[in-house]
Amino acid sequence: MHHLTAMKPNLTILTALLLAQLATLHAAESSAQSKPVPDPALTPIEDVAGLPRVLLIGDSVSIGYTLPTRELLKGKANVHRPPTNCSSTGHGLNYLKSWLGDKKWDVIHFNFGLHDAKLPPEGVRHAAPEMYEKNLRELVIQMKATSAKLIFATTTPVPNGGNLRPTRRFGSVDQYNAVARKVMTENGVAINDLNADIAPHVEKMQRANDVHFTDEGSMLLAKQVVKAIEAQLGLGTRTRVGRQAARLPNVITMTQAAFDRAIAFARMRTSRFISMSGRPCRTRRCGRSLACANPTENRLHASALEWVQSLPPAELRTAVANGADRMKLLDIQKPRTSLES
Predict the structure, then answer these.
(1) How many CA atoms lie within 13 A of 252 on its CB side?
(2) Are residues 207 and 291 part of one domain?
(3) φ, ψ for residue 213, nearest 5 deg
(4) Three-class SS state of 202
(5) What pLDDT was estimated at residue 37?
(6) Cα–Cα distances in Å, from 110 out to 59, 119, 120, 152, 234?
(7) Is 301 helix (H, G, I), strand (E, B) or coil?
(8) What stretches in the chain show pLDDT beneath 70?
(9) Which among 5, 55, 90, 315 is most buried, taking Cβ atoms within 10 Å?
(10) pLDDT for res 38
(11) DSSP secondary structure letters along 235-251
């Protein structure tokens, strides 16, 4: 009896130790289960040597199309993004320097808008259209300083007229996009109109009463992002117009005067057009159906016009500002010497 009585304290201590260990293990398991799984879209990537570097900047909508964009550009470009939701223009001004880092970027594809349009109380980073414009201009200045080619993506639609619930409301996305278009056009920044691309599909591809999209919607956006990036990098497949123009070397070797006219057609869309030979066309509408007196000139004219219209806005604006110097434009468009678009 004395021996058993002596063992009781030891058993009690042992039991307490075991219970403490079990409690520690349970706490560790609970902590592991409650710890959020990192979003792979926000995980930094390592560059593949020799490939151009692309930076995606944007909010949670852009996070949704980051992975499919990266996959579609695999082997063509290193697609990076900040490891965070880039939120509003005001937030962007605070953190852009750290997002850009000190390495060279070939293309920066960016969007700000939803968080600026989001109204209080949830919209803690709301910016009125006037402030949005001011912030955008400063952001563009800073990004242009990197010498990267810039692409602005328009802000995607908000359902229910912007009223998702009493505390989650948005101003007019159309108004913010109009402001952004003005800023980008004035600064020669290419515009990727994601709003127009996704708008016909929101009923099917946008989550109910939400600004975010289904996987199918994010893939559609990613494909448009890839097209815009490839255009700036001189990548992508040849279009029918490109194949047609490649068989017409005179489009490249046309006279400066003829090239000037093609530029003028694309930019001004005047009501009366001049054919490549200088003779008036028989129609007042320019395009593939153009009825020039000479069928060969008709094809050359249409191909030249479509090629000029395919140029990114910044390069076209530069060409016009420089007097539409054909040789300068061809030098700018080295990846498109065969008139690929």
Answers:
(1) 16
(2) no
(3) -120, 160
(4) helix
(5) 74
(6) 9, 22, 24, 5, 19
(7) helix
(8) 1-35, 236-341
(9) 55
(10) 81
(11) -SPPPHHHHHHHT-THH
Q: Which residues contact 317 (CB under 8 A, 6 or more apart)?
A: 188
Q: What pLDDT does 212 receive?
A: 97
Adjacent-strand bridge partners of 168: 165
pLDDT at position 28: 59
Q: What pLDDT shows up at residue 19? A: 63
**Cα–Cα nearest to 324, from 256, 238, 248:** 256
Q: What is the CATH number of the domain that holds 52?
A: 3.40.50.1110
Give dist(CA 250, CA 124) in Å, integer: 57
Find tokens 């912030």 and name the residue. 135
- Which phi and psi (to 5°) does residue 167 adopt? -100, 0
* Residue where one domain finishes, among candidates 188, 216, 233: 233
Other beta carbons within 10 Å of 39: 14
Tell me, yes or no, whether 82 lies in a domain: yes
Tell the residue number behind the tokens 């930076």, with chain if given. 55
